[in-house]
Amino acid sequence: MYEKAVSGIMLMILFICLLSVALNIQLVKSEPGTIIVPDDYPTIQEAINNANEGDTIYVSAGTYYENVVVNKTVSLVGENKSTTIIDGKGMAYVINVTANKVNISEFTIRNADTGLYLWHSGGHNISYNTIINNSQCGIHLRTSIDNIIANNWVENNGNGIELKDYSSGNTIINNTVINNSADGIMIWWYSTSIVEKNLVKNNNGEGVLVYRSSYTKITGNIVINNSGMGIWVRDSDYPIISNNTVAHNGIDGISVSLAYYPATVSNNEVRGNGRAGIYSYISNCYVERNNVTENREEGIIFYASGGYITNNIVHKNVKGIYLSFSLYLSLANNILNQNVYNFGVYGADLREFIHSIDQSNTVNGKPIYYLINKNSLVIDSANIGFLALVNCTSILVQNLNLTNNLQGILLANTKNSTICNINFSNNLYGIYIRDSNGNFIYHNNFINNAYQVYDMGWLKAHYSEAPLPSLNTWDDGYSSGGNYWSDYNGTDWYSGVYQNETGSDGIGDTPYVIDENNIDHYPLMTPYAITPPVPSVINATIDINPKALNLRSRGKWITAYIELPEGYDVRDINVSTVMLNDTISAEPRPIAVGDYDEDGITDLMVKFDRAKVIRYILDNIDIVRLYEKKFMTMTLTVTGKLYDGTPFQGTAAIRLIMPMPIGLRRHIFLI
Q: Strands 647-657, 631-642: parallel, antiparallel or unpaired by DSSP?
């Protein structure tokens, strides 16, 4: 009995020892190790085949002609991406990743259809690689989620980086994607991701293309010189496109289209693109705080239902802001200046002219007047940048200078109004008419408009939704006359009601025909003399820094902060016209727009040369009196003009200090 008990105990002890050894062996096997290629295995694939989960495979410098399948969770680390090369031999892929949580870094990956293929997997980190010369794609994710693609150089592939088929949750950051033969970065089919701080340049398709991938965020990228769109988001809800520089792309800079839910396009620098700067064909798009400049067609174009265009600077484009067949848009605080045609609204149905556009929007420093459902008003002001009358009646418009817009005046469903003493010049359309009848239009100058008058009704034969042509009166009878038309080619040999009496009278002998129902019977041979009201001087608020000026100081600048009253914007100030006491010009730079005194009113900072200011002051004060009083106060006046020529003026007092030279003080003391 005793022997059996001892035997049982011994067997149990032996079993525990064997189990302990087995557990120790298993723990040793599970610890990640490092495999070196070619020291441990001659090829990368053999190293992977013999690796355990979590191992690091370190690949020494050299060229490896392989098609690598990564089916384990390992880290592939090259010695140096310039010298550690995996060549795919022209096959389908260089590296095909099917396991999860694989890290790949410091390789040149080249010469296959696809350089790096991540398939039905996720959690990878692909960073610091050079991926070049792959015919279809540099990096291709297919149903691959939650990856980081960072700091890679992707060049001379088909598409640069491509996400497809539910490859969501990825972050594409700090990559250089250049000179690819198709798109730079393509996100396709429910592959919501973040595209951030990449350089996307010189690709032969779109810079960044997003298709049917909602909630994608594109921010902080430089997207330049791509042949197609800079950034094109299509059929994708709730994208955010912000803080990008999008420049010199072949078609539109930023385009959002064909989605049900809104996009946000904000704080982008969009310049020099081949067509529009920002194009929206999407409902309720928010376009705000963008700087849109020097694009070859529109700065901002909307073809949409609902949307918000706010706080943008639109500068030196062919067309500034263009609303085309859109419904119920809201515009506020947009600054349009020096565009060939600054602003315009197009449509066929009356609803396409019903927008909320207030006077915080300016054209060359003058507010936009977009009037809807107004009756019995007189509009007589030099300070109007654009004028629209929508569904208005009995309006008198006179003494305006309307220039450089898509439409000099927009008349939509406006009746029984009078338009006279207006200069319409250098607009695309001098007057644009939609179903507006019974108006009197005379004693105006139509000069160098691409189309002096355009009636939407002329499209009725081709576009069933267009209204019937309008019928208006275009002259004030004989001998008061009609309008001056710069493209009128008639002569003035005769006079009289029927222009059949000998002798000229300043009225053309033949009518100016607008269409078969609209005729100026008495066109003027010379421009009608219009004297618009002289714009009053804007009272500006000026702060001078320093407030006390030591006339012996050697600082560089005298700084002025200029505030304008409500309804004007300091961004419309032409800095080249700013002067101090009509003598000293402001320096062209530095300048800045901000809120120096934190009073909630935007100001413009300009600087004057301190030495010039001190010299001017010394030439215009009594120095002896200054010595006697130790200080005195002087009023400085800052003047200038807005881009539209409207003058402004403001004053500020500055305290002058002139320390007496030591030698002179001794002399006075001795006396």
A: antiparallel
Placement of tokens 């004989």 in the chain: 478
CA distance 450 to 457: 18
Q: Do 554 and 473 belong to one domain?
A: no
* pLDDT number for residue 663: 52
Length of the chain: 671
pLDDT digits (tens, 9 = 90+) for 467-506: 889 999 999 999 999 999 999 999 999 999 999 999 999 9
Other CB atoms within a 10 A radius of the CB of residue 159 amount to 28
Check: CB of residue 496 under 8 Å from CB of residue 522.
Answer: no
For the beta carbon of residue 660, count every other beta carbon within 10 angstroms: 15
* Alpha helix ranges (H) inside 309-360: none
Look at the block and give the residue holding tokens 């002001």. 381
Calpha distance 634→654 (Å, rounded): 5
For residue 294, the SS3 value is coil
CA–CA distance, 368 with 387 (Å, rounded to integer): 6
pTM of the model: 0.80
Q: What whole-number distance in Å separates Cα of residue 266 and Cα of residue 219? A: 10
Does a structural domain hold residue 485? yes
Q: What letter would DSSP give residue 473?
A: B
CA–CA separation, 631 and 627 (whole Å): 7
CA–CA distances in Å: residue 465 to residues 80, 435, 462: 66, 12, 9
CATH of the domain at 655: 2.60.40
- Residues 469 and 504 both lie in one domain: yes
**Is residue 313 in some structural domain?**
no
- Can you tell me the distance from the alpha carbon of 357 to that of 361, in angstroms, rounded to the nearest whole number? 7
Q: What is the rounded CA–CA span in Å between residue 234 and residue 257?
A: 5
114-143 b/e with 16+ CB inside 10 Å = b?
bbbbbeebbbbbbbbbbbbbbebbbbbbbb
Asked if residue 466 belongs to a domain, the reply is yes
Q: Is 475 helix (H, G, I), strand (E, B) or coil?
A: coil
pLDDT digits (tens, 9 = 90+) for 495-549: 999 999 999 999 999 999 999 999 999 999 999 998 766 667 999 999 999 988 8
Place of tokens 């500055």: 654
Give the sign of the dihedral formed by CA 35, CA 37, CA 42, CA 47. Answer: positive
Judged by DSSP in three states, 441 sits in strand
In a domain, 606, yes or no: yes
Domain that holds residue 611: 538-662
144: cis peptide before it, omega within 30°? Answer: no
